[in-house]
Design goal:
With about 325 residues, the chain is α/β, with parallel strands linked by helices. The chain contains twelve helices and 13 strands. The two termini are about 10 Å apart. The mean pLDDT is about 95.
Length: about 325
Amino acid sequence: MQSAPGPERPWLVGDIGGTNARFGLVREAGARPVHVGKVPSALHDGLASAARAYLAGLPERVSPSAACVAVAGPVLGDRIRLTNVGWDFSVEGDRAGLGLDHLEVVNDFAALAQSLPALGEEDLLPLGGGSVDPADPMAVLGPGTGLGVAGLVPLPAGGWLPLPGEGGHVDAPAVEDLEAEVVRVITAERGRVSAEALLSGPGLPRLHRALGEILGTEAPDLTPGEITAAGTDPDGGDTLARETLEVFGALLGGFAGNVALTLGATGGVFLGGGVLPRIPGVLRDGRFRMRFEAKGRMTDYLKNIATVLITAGNPALLGAAARLDQQLERA
């Protein structure tokens, strides 16, 4: 089996989302993906169909030798069922169907975690604390359709071990009185309130409506994008949208501090997902870092841990490439 990628037999990397399936090619071990493109997820019934459509659109014909694909959800065996895409496929079946020597399907935040050592200063926006250190355990989290969380631990023999999980489903990190009122209001509507119920794209309108009820302010139905736009508009007068983002940032800081303590992520806490790149100012200038550190006698421990926003494009593809590099080339 060929392990190293080459011009005619590159590695294929993918990141499957509810709207688009993104792919890229890795032509040299350790290199970043090239020919990054996307195909609409809804037009395909599984990985093999989407990958073939991407490959057919390339300027030259290639036959990948190996692939690593990131998906949103747990990966617990050969059968992959993606509810946000409507796909149901066999890893081994699609490996054979695509003519691959090796196919690996991983959790999307496991892939994002695997990308962390490969990110440079140009890929990150510092949000406080010390410097990132890939020699120590790291954590990555981020709100999108849900709230993803993963860790990355360096191995004694070299390389890293990603630690995917379902940390977004822990209880909401409400500390302040206003946050407790938010949880009370939403609990009355839907029962238990997880961190993901607030710290996600769908969580933003939920938080917006609850704050409107608590503060006695009209809360029109807004999309997550409309809330972030109104809340960050320097000339806007939408105080409820701004308050929503402030509370969102504070809750996220408390949650990120919990993750750092749980994983011992002294190498840094990285923020990804689809929501946060729209609100860097909220994270940098708001209560995010204060709440990250506000953990009583563990405050000094957390002050030294870096928090950074991932600004790189398609970092999950970079992580999938790093995963293949570790599994195949370095083996």
